[in-house]
Write a structure and sequence with these properties.
The chain is α/β, with parallel strands linked by helices and 254 residues long. The protein is built from seven helices and eleven strands.
């Protein structure tokens, strides 16, 4: 029996890597499939992993109809036994319903991969509908880590290293981990760039619930620790410069 399976997790837990591995395994057994992605970090029509794996895919747009995508391929003689749907959090609820219909009426296996909630801890529409309709929801066991070493459970958005909790749900940003040197360089760039029309740097990182609630990012932790000392866990975000409400940052005092 075909299934709709949703593989969920935070950033950095290996969703895209697993998507590519599953596609390889099914193709190696003679099954035909189609890879889909949406807003991948490497650009349109691509599934990419932070490990360096990368392959082509069909870009999912607002007007994409998965039912039509499969019908067109099957009527032209192509075999479609399964779909790999990466970045599924960006799909609309209607598109998720199309995937469920393919499973039920065409016996097409659908393997969807995505982040469950956004930087505000709000469910993405696509993820919410997948949780509601999927035959199985599997949380990936590869744990992303917070800067403190604890298991990361939240996705945080930062602007110049400062965590924000307001803004558009979808926004492209850097996801590279920060070091103490990165934190100092960013602080210098912000200070020197303020008078020259500095363009804010949007980034993302994974945090444990404790530090998400306190809004302490890796950048803030490095500033407080001076790059050398271990940060005590009872330090609050309000103790480091820039943690107050900033213009356009959407950040409120803790």
């Amino acid at each position: 029996m075909a299934e709709l399976v949703f593989f969920s997790g935070t950033m950095d837990c290996g969703k895209s890597t697993l998507a590519l591995q599953m596609d390889y395994n099914h193709r190696a057994r003679g099954r035909g499939g189609v890879r889909f992605s949406c807003n991948d970090r490497a650009g349109d029509s691509t599934i990419s992993s932070r490990l360096g794996l990368r392959t082509d895919a069909v870009e999912v747009r607002a007007d994409t109809d998965f039912w039509d995508e499969v019908v067109v391929r099957r009527t032209s003689g192509l075999r479609v036994d399964y779909l790999i749907c990466d970045e599924a959090q960006f799909y609309s609820a209607a598109q998720v319903e199309q995937l469920a219909r393919l499973v039920d009426e065409m016996e097409v296996d659908v393997f969807a991969f995505g982040i469950t909630s956004d930087f505000r801890t709000t469910l993405f529409p696509g993820s919410q509908r997948l949780i509601e309709l999927a035959d199985k929801v599997q949380v990936l066991r590869v744990e992303a880590l917070c800067w403190c070493g604890r298991r990361a459970t939240q996705n945080a958005r930062t602007v110049d290293g400062i965590m924000v909790v307001e803004g558009d749900q979808v926004m492209v940003g850097d996801v590279a981990p920060q070091t103490a040197g990165d934190a100092q360089a960013m602080s210098n760039e912000v200070r020197t760039g303020e008078a020259a029309g500095h363009e804010p740097v949007v980034g993302y990182e994974t945090l444990c619930r404790r530090h998400y609630m306190r809004r302490v990012t890796a950048h803030g932790a490095n500033l407080m620790a001076g790059g050398d000392q271990t940060l005590p866990f009872d330090v609050d975000a309000c103790l480091w410069p820039g943690a107050g409400s900033g213009t356009g940052s959407g950040l409120k005092p803790s």
